[in-house]
Amino acid sequence: MRGKIVKGIAGFYYVWCEDDKLYECKAKGSFRKEGIKPLVGDNVTVCVLDEEKHLGNLEEILPRKNELIRPAVANVDQALIVFAMANPMPNLNLLDRFLLMMEWQNVETIICFSKQDIVSEEEEKHFLSIYEKCANQVLTISNTENMGIDKVKQCLEGKTTVLAGPSGVGKSSILNALDPRFSLAVGEVSKALGRGRHTTRHVEMFPLDEDTYVIDTPGFSSFDTEELDLELKARLPETFPEFAPYLGQCRFVGCSHVKEKGCAVLQAVKDGKIPASRHRSYVRLHDELKDLRDWQRR
Ligand code: ZN
């Protein structure tokens, strides 16, 4: 039987199967021998061991469309990065790291700014003006007034989307607004774990309909650059889309766009064509990556 891995905990994989049931599966030993790690999002075939108890074995992992390292998921179409515009004040450097991570892994990104109801129109415009060029789409929503949820729904339709963002920005309420079944599922899980609220600690995929999936990624709320590869060091300027028109126009070949004379990127920042906060994030990442050595490569 075919299915999709929606969750993996402590050696067990939970597979949503064709018969609309969730099977608890173990992976064959041969996967480990071959160095294959089943991932959330994997399309698999399952050999059913016990139909009543919903137990099975993972038999085969079907070819992957793509595979992300951070978060470790497979067959993803896009990422929805949720950030609050206020309360908590957004850490734009962190947002820029999320964007960079996705850009680097060739994942299309939608930025969703939440808590529209508590910021002024001006503040909202400020965020939009910084980020309009960094993502495939930028949305603003308000969870409390349920505004903008339809736009989010539209963006997700027919796709598999990774949901990312720091805690406290309203990710769970977005999930709940998208589909009331989530609050049910969340309630059950919380009860079983003896926790009062939705505190997911593992990557989990939720089916919205037949071909629409959302992957929640707790623990993907922050990360250190030491996790980033050296490859990124070389490609850092490319991961800032608004730098693109200026790359290759600097006076010096190998310009790092930090403080060099005749740097076209710095000039664009000065001219207001690249938001200063985005360039600050770039410099910070550049400085952190600068010290990476070959032996740190994983
Ligand atoms: Zn430059």
Characterization of the model:
It is built from nine helices and eleven strands. With 298 residues, it is an alpha/beta fold. A six-stranded mixed beta sheet has the order 8-7-6-9-11-10, sandwiched between helices. The protein has a five-stranded mixed barrel with strand order 1-2-3-5-4. Helix 2 (92-104) packs across helix 9 (276-290). The longest helix is centred in the last third of the chain and has 15 residues, at 276-290. It is globular. The structure holds zinc ion. Zinc ion (ZN) binds at residues 250, 255, 257, 260, 263-265.
Provide a compact summary of the structure:
The protein has 9 helices and 11 strands.
SSE order and pairing:
Blueprint: E1 2-9, E2 12-17, E3 22-27, H1 29-33, E4 43-50, E5 55-61, E6 78-84, H2 92-104, E7 108-114, H3 121-131, E8 137-140, H4 149-156, E9 160-164, H5 171-178, H6 181-193, E10 204-209, E11 212-216, H7 230-235, H8 264-270, H9 276-290
Parallel strand pairs: 3-5, 6-7, 6-9, 7-8, 9-11
Antiparallel strand pairs: 1-2, 1-4, 2-3, 4-5, 10-11
